[in-house]
Write a structure and sequence with these properties.
Number of domains: 1
Radius of gyration: 16 Å
Strand content: under 5%
Number of helices: 5
Strand order of the largest sheet: 1-2
Number of strands: 2
Largest sheet: 2 strands, antiparallel
Shape: elongated
Distance between the termini: 35 Å
């Protein structure tokens, strides 16, 4: 049975591959916007797209200034692993945000 480190490493690779496939036919700026909206950090986005974290940060600043993306926390996840759009679904399940 693989140890926890090996499992986490494989999951990181899977996440990177999935992130890279998001809007693969779109321009880099749009891919950055979508991945950021999905809750990935600039370093994670950079690794997925094969660029630098600084490039991603600069792109995000430009997107924020244009109003195309908001700065914020990562999306909240419910106990089932789904993203909650608000805190209400979490409270219904007995989880305090």
């Amino acid at each position: 049975m693989p140890d926890e480190t090996a499992v986490l490493s494989r999951l990181d690779k899977i996440i990177t591959l999935l992130a890279a496939s998001v809007a693969a036919d779109k321009p880099q700026l749009e891919r950055i916007r979508r991945l950021s909206s999905a809750g990935l950090a600039p370093l994670e986005i950079a690794q997925a797209l094969g660029t630098t974290a600084n490039t991603v940060r600069v792109a995000l600043v430009g997107l924020r200034k244009s109003g195309r993306v908001r700065r914020g926390r990562k999306p909240k996840r419910t106990p089932g692993g789904t993203v909650a759009n608000s805190t209400e679904p979490m409270r219904e399940q007995g989880v305090e945000p």
